[in-house]
Amino acid sequence: MTNAPRNILFIMFDQLRFDYLSCTGHPHLHTPHLDALAAKGVRFSHCYVQSPICGASRMSFYTGRYVHSHGAAWNNFPLKVGEITLGDHLRVQGMDSWLIGKTHMKVDDAGLDRLGISRDSIIGARVAECGFDVFERDDGLWGEGPSGSYDMKPSPYNAFLKSKGYAAENPWQHNANAGRDEVGKIASGWFMRHADKPADIAEEDSETPWLTSRAMEFIQQQDERGAGPWMCHLSYIKPHWPYIVPAPYHDMYGADQVMPVVRAAQELENTHPVYAAFMKNQIGRTFSTPGVREKVIPAYMGLIKQADDQMGRLFHWLEETGHMQDTMIVVTSDHGDYLGDHWLGEKDLFHDPSVRVPLIVYDPSSRADATRGTVCDAMVESIDLAATFVDFAGGEVPDHILEGRSLRGYLHGDTPQDWRDFVVSEYDYSATPEAEALGLDPKEARLFMLADKDWKCVFADGGFRPLLYDLKSDPQELCDLGGDVAYADVIARFESQLSQWARRPSQRTTISDAELRAKRLGSAQDVGIFIGVYDERELPPEVIQKTIAPKKG
What's phi and psi for 436, nearest 5 deg? Predict the structure, then answer.
């Protein structure tokens, strides 16, 4: 083991539930390679993302700031020019910051134009790519419809597939994410009845192996050119829908290995209006239909099994090249997937299947030997990773900018003092059909979740009551107590915490607390400014000398 990691490999899966690994308790889905990483590192059992939607969550990972601070509150909301990102922080410490895969970042085109920043410049390119230098960016949704394409950027994955001989104009849509029916017609993975079919693609050409190969190529190129320390964000597209996976993973699991659904009839009684609106959407209704989970979840499990096998391939290669000894490895997800739990599909709301994510951190240094294979149950937020990376890169964490806290203490067996008591997640659903159905002004369609080990409380703007769950007596979050006056004191406590959190000086990012303290020790009189002084004789002569005795030109 080395004294300190030289590089950081930051692996993110998209829509991977916290409980769909064998090391987190899934009884049928065996993930030996991620389990082995957890056995060499620390697994954080209570990690929460700052928003349960892709874009907003990722912007918090990349800025180390709450959604309330960075403002990119939903998919394709631009991250404003001027937000300091992980790449900016790490480059100050001499560490490059590279992207392979997805960010779901939308560039602030108006901001670039206002400031006259060219997208072809180094600064412009980094601002446009969430602070990363790009080895390969692919956001992984190349759908097409009557109004055009979901993503207007060129698809590097489609270019790769065409180089491999796939003839379709959009092989992502018609090969990687589609199968074939009994007569050979395209069976699109968009339609979940086809989830049990194998994707019409060679397994080694599918998205997860492709990105794994690209990561290995990147690291090899860094080695060949003798590059300095790097942080590589390897951001996978799967197991995000479409729920379809190539052979042999398509039929590794069956309906008998699908975990029982977590939902109850009582959730349909006196349901909170916002919760009810999401229950009624297309994917909520679909996942509440008998037989859908049994068709879809085996494919979701197959996507995760493929991902774990690719981790085995990657970790073996890192061992062979010596990088397992000089590279910190972090594995997490941007959010989870309801998969029918709580009468919901997708993510969006704040039950644990959506907002709680896996987090495994492997530190190769000898300082971490005492914690290898341990599980930490501290309340961790996704924004803690940016602070952790800056800390390991040798920098002092700028806590007037980064709102998370370094996990180094937990990794090295030195439990941090005064760790947070609760976590916060936010959801701005102002651009959704649910907000329209509820008749909400865009400024009202916001949710704030606060959770500690015992309780979870969700505050809803727009005149709605809170939701409240007693996690000790109801760990599956089936009984909403938010309308019960007997719990008014619990809700009041969380409301006070929310108020305290919202009043933090999150926009004061240009001057640190240390600089402010230093200003207290100085005096305006030292630079010839005298406020409120009546008689100059009250002051020491040396202070007023230049004021009363002018120099001759």
Answer: -65, -45
Phi/psi at 425 (5° precision): -135, 150
3-class DSSP assignment, residue 424: strand
Task: Provide φ and ψ at 363, rounded to 5°.
Answer: -115, 120
Q: What is the pLDDT of residues 453-484, one digit of tens each?
A: 999 999 999 999 999 999 999 999 999 999 99
User: Any residues with CB less than 8 A from the CB of 392 and at least 6 apart, and which?
Assistant: 4, 5, 8, 328, 363, 408
Residue 51 CA to residue 115 CA, distance in Å, equals 29
> Are the C-beta atoms of residues 47 and 380 closer than 8 Å to each other?
yes
Retrieve residue 97's tokens. 């910051």
Report d(CA 424, CA 430) in Å as an integer. 19
Contact between residue 253 and residue 29 where contact means Cβ atoms under 8 Å apart: yes
d(CA 494, CA 20): 30
Cβ neighbours, 10 Å, residue 250: 21
**Beta-carbon count within 10 A of 217 CB:** 13
Q: Measure the CA–CA gap between 215 and 211, rounded to whole angstroms.
A: 6
Which phi and psi angles does 13 have, rounded to 5°? -100, 155
CA distance 307 to 309: 5
Q: What is the mean pLDDT of residues 378-407?
A: 97
Tell me the per-residue pLDDT of 278-307, one tens digit each, with 9 for 90 and over: 999 999 999 999 999 999 999 999 999 999
* Nearest residue to 75 (alpha-carbon basis) of 55, 57, 59: 55
Q: What pTM value is reported for the model?
A: 0.96
Stated as kind and residue range, the H or E segment containing 58 is helix 54-63
Question: Do 331 and 278 contact (CB within 8 A), yes or no?
Answer: no
CA–CA dist 241, 346 (Å, integer): 9
The strand pairing partners of 356, in sequence order, are: 48
Nearest alpha carbon to residue 46 among 475, 341, 428, 446 = 475
Rg (CA), the chain: 26
Query: Can you point out the beta strands (E) in 163-303?
Result: 178-180, 186-188, 230-235
- Partners of 424 in beta bridges: 450
CB contact at 8 A, 105 and 55: yes
Q: Which one-letter amino acid corresponds to residue 121? A: S
Tell me which residue of 52, 49, 50, 43 sits closest to 24, measured CA to CA.
43
First to last CA, the chain: 67
Assess contact for 319 and 311: CB atoms under 8 A.
Answer: no
- DSSP 8-state symbol, 487: G
Angle (CA) 64-70-76 rounded to 5° is 110
Contact 379, 416 (CB under 8 A): no
> Which is nearest to 461 in space by CA: 61, 73, 30, 33?
73
Cα–Cα distance list, 409 to 265, 342, 370, 394 (Å): 43, 36, 12, 14
User: Considering only CA atoms, which of 293, 290, 303 is closest in space to residue 256?
Assistant: 293
Our measurement of the distance from residue 206's CA atom to the centroid of its chain's CA atoms, rounded to an integer in Å, reads: 23
